[in-house]
Amino acid sequence: METKSRTLEITILSAEDLRTGNTPVKKNAFVVVSIDAFNSKETKIDGEGGSYPSWNDKLVMEMPVQTRFITLQVKYCKGSSSGGEKLVGVARIPVTDFIGGYSPETCLQYLSYRLRDAKGLKNGIINVSLRLKEPLRDCSSQAASAGGIGLGIPIDGPTDFGVVTGIPICSAYPPNAFFR
């Protein structure tokens, strides 16, 4: 049996206000992106950003069709003397946030998510961009578009049968690009 998958391109841009307890993270933050238990990748370590790290790491991963969530875990290295890594916060991205909405699946989307620590408390924000490199082909949607099936919305009253068509516009700019 063949398992279908799509190629996901996710760029981990930055994070904001990372803390451990009430203390801001000082340095060495990184992100682990997991699609399932066997498919995960991590960003490089940001050794300078502190509680506002920036990575801008593009990760390309295979995403099975049945995937419901993508998990982002923000961690930091404790230091060479104590060793190990500590979880700062987790965000789960529903696949429905970037597939099946109003914008095309291959459109680049900029999204921000609240991070939650191990106790479930708010602990910063993570900013990402993502898109599918190629959409999954579906015969039923091709037949519908070829047959001209759509929603007719009256424009000028009950006798006007014009059709209003909305076209999603993909943003070419990251969040807050004009407000920095």
Automatic annotation (TrEMBL):
Annotated source species: Hibiscus sabdariffa (roselle)
Domain C2, residue spans: 1-108
Entry superkingdom: Eukaryota
Cross-referenced InterPro entries: C2_dom, C2_domain_sf, C2_SRC2/BAP
Name assigned to this protein: C2 domain-containing protein
Transmembrane regions: none
CDD domains per UniProt: C2_SRC2_like
